[in-house]
Specification:
The chain is mostly helical. It contains 10 helices and no strands. 72% of the residues lie in helices and 0% in strands. The longest helix has 31 residues. It starts with a helix and ends with a helix.
Length: 267
């Protein structure tokens, strides 16, 4: 039976920056318009993190029962390494999805953003079908969209680094991810390109909110993981890339949000 520490590791804490960063940047975008609400931001953060943990457990379950996790390098695989009953892992995934749904309903009721209900349902379906199901895949403003593109690109880079590490085992088990299709070299290029997209998003935002350029400071943290990926790092070295990319995403989000808030106050 899995220990509490193994359940925590199975939640894959290194991936949580991908859930935290979009909320930080979204709050910054709202602050730029003078409409930030820290209470609503906290609820959104709980929803986002709960969905991320839920999808991590769902991924553990789906890959584990398919046998693609047996020889993975990296965090604990609760099902693949036979540390927990598969049904318990699936139950944990849906528990976090359910919690996210309940908090999401409270968020919708307080914000009157009813459009988020169908979007939330789609988010949960997408989270489950990331590796589950028959065909697994693994007020809007221009500034808000660019911010979403920036953090989304870095979140995608985290996934790309993870799939890069797993190319050998995925290919052997017949799991056709984008990384398997692109191959080792193409996947490494994609990782670097996603980091570049995040930089371009900052430049685009700076055309409206010049202080947003402060987010470029975060790229000092991106240098090492980009260098490791492009130099051919494999196996456990790519676990370090995951952690470093997550730290980079948090720094990017915090600095971008600060720049947006600053730019909004200047306007």
């Amino acid at each position: 039976m899995a220990t509490i520490a193994q359940w925590i590791e199975g939640a894959r804490p290194r991936t949580l920056p991908a859930a935290i960063a979009p909320v930080i940047v979204g709050t910054g975008a709202a602050a730029a318009l003078g409409e930030a609400n820290l209470g609503l931001a906290l609820l959104a953060l709980i929803v986002s993190v709960s969905l991320q943990i839920g999808v991590n457990y769902a991924n553990d379950y789906s890959d584990g029962i398919r046998g693609t996790d047996a020889a993975r390098v990296g965090p604990v695989r609760l099902v693949g390494q036979h540390k927990a009953n598969p049904e318990n892992v699936k139950l944990m995934a849906f528990a976090f999805f359910g919690f996210a749904a309940l908090v999401g309903l409270a968020l919708v009721a307080l914000s009157n953003a009813w459009i988020m209900i169908p979007l939330g349902v789609l988010a949960i379906l997408a989270a489950w079908r990331y590796t589950g199901g028959d065909h697994p895949y693994g007020a809007v403003t221009g500034v808000g969209v660019l911010g979403a593109v920036g953090v989304g690109a870095i979140a995608s880079a985290i996934l790309v680094a993870n799939n890069l590490r797993d190319i050998p085992t995925d290919r052997a088990s017949g799991k056709i991810t984008l990384a398997v299709r692109l191959g080792d070299r193409g996947t490494r290029t994609l990782y670097a390109a996603l980091v570049a997209v995040a930089a371009l998003a900052v430049v685009g935002i700076a055309l409206t909110y010049l202080p947003a350029l402060i987010a470029l400071v975060a790229f000092a943290l991106a240098w090492r993981p980009v260098r490791l990926v492009l130099s051919g790092a494999t196996g456990r070295d790519l676990v370090a890339v995951l952690a470093a990319t997550g730290l980079f995403e948090i720094a990017y989000a915090v600095l971008l949000a600060a720049g947006l808030a600053w730019g909004g106050s200047l306007g």
